[in-house]
Amino acid sequence: MSTSSRQPAGSTEMRRRRDERSRQPDRRQTLYGGSLRTLAIATVVMIGLALGLAFFYAPEEATEGFLQRIFYLHVPLAIVCLAGFVAAGAMAIMHLRTRDPRWDLRSYVAIHMSLIFGIGVLICGSIWAKGSWGHWWVWSEPTLVSFLIIILLYATYQPLRFSIEDPERQARYASVFAITAGAFVPLNFIAVRLSTAYLHPRVLGSSKLPGPMAFTFLISLIAFALLYITLWRFEMTAKHARWQLKALRRKLSGEEIPARRRSAEPELGASSGSSSAPLGEPALTTPMIGRQAP
Amino acid sequence: MPLKEAVGYVAAAYIAVFLIVLIYVAIMSVRVRRVERELADLRDSADAREEAS
User: Fold this and answer.
1) Residues of B in contact with A237 (CB under 8 A)
2) Any CB–CB contact under 8 A between A40 and chain B?
3) Is the complex ipTM more than 0.90?
4) What's the angle, vertex CA A275, arms to CA A252 and CA A174, rounded to 5?
5) What is the pLDDT of residues B5-41, one digit of tens each?
6) Can you tell me the distance from the alpha carbon of A282 to that of A159, in angstroms, rounded to the nearest whole number?
7) What are the residues facing A65 on neighbouring strands?
8) Whole-number Cα distances in Å, B4 to A52, A73, A128, B7, B12
């Protein structure tokens, strides 16, 4: 039965109340607090600044010319993506240490975000490769192939979660995966760096990058790191709110905890065995509007 | 590479990445709106129950 059909006052009354509420600015409900909005504004400003610097401030590179400006998008995006995978591994360690399902959720969202960034890296990298080398993909290039291997490795994370029905076991196995794969990321990076074939342009860690280019790159890196953090927090807030909504609905209807639908998503109340006050959080009497997901 | 051709590649790369981010944000926004709507319905339901009691 839907919530609206249980409504004794009827749907017209409900609509009237909603209209009334929306007219009251102090009661306007958003699921995100002021800090997420500030973070989002800072991200937009930094991305604008990074784009401005990349196109109007950074000098043109001698060999690649204008095409080299993809560098300010591709490389920071790749660094943030890989750092996100490593961070997800660290969060998974925290999950195994504390058994707190919120760490599993954090790790899950970090991997999800890194995968989205990774797809962006592969697409813009391919476009750069086509412009620079004349091919969309070069299989003999170790950096490209190793990055693809990492993305394919993490692409198995969701199916792995989905294949395990028991939520606690799913969270534990997913954490082990996140730690192992997270450790593989820097090892893979070092291995590629040590390999003899230096086909991929190496501009970082050497004195090749002039001052204005290095500054633009740094701003771009900060901008994409902020974008990652903003989107991570946005998704965390959304997932948290959805879970709280489920718990509140159950509480209002007096229903027992329904059988968990098979899902790859972490179940926040999975290990607590209680729908009212899981995870050591206060008992859920009212929805925590505006409260930030940790 | 001629500037005109290079501009095409650079624009394609930037547009592709920002499009991915935009699609993701749009999907998440729809989900968040749905949660907000459901939350409002539940609040109304709780208010109505309170009034009835």
Assistant:
1) 32
2) no
3) no
4) 135
5) 889 999 999 999 999 999 999 999 998 888 888 888 8
6) 33
7) A61
8) 19, 19, 15, 5, 13
Residue A28, pLDDT above cutoff 50? no
Place of tokens 């790159």: A217
Q: Which residues contact B24 (CB under 8 A, 6 or more apart)?
A: A116, A231
- Burial of A204 (C-beta count, 10 Å sphere; 0-12/13-18/19+): exposed
Inter-residue contact A86 to A107 (CB < 8 Å): no
B-chain residues near A116 (CB < 8 A): 20-21, 24
Structure tokens at A72: 């300010």
pTM, to two decimals? 0.80
CB atoms A252 and B28 under 8 Å: no
Place of tokens 């401030």: A57
Q: What are the tokens at A270? A: 């999975």
Query: Pick from A7, A116, A289: which is nearest to B45 by CB?
Result: A7
- Averaged pLDDT score across all residues of chain A: 80
| Alpha-carbon dihedral angle through residues A43, A49, A51, A53, given to the nearest 10 degrees | -150
Q: How many CA atoms lie within 13 A of A260 on its CB side?
A: 21
Window from A162-166, A241-245, A271-275 with minimum mean pLDDT: A271-275
Residues in A closer than 8 angstroms to B27, CB to CB, are none
Minimal Cβ distance to B52: which of A8, A128, A252: A8
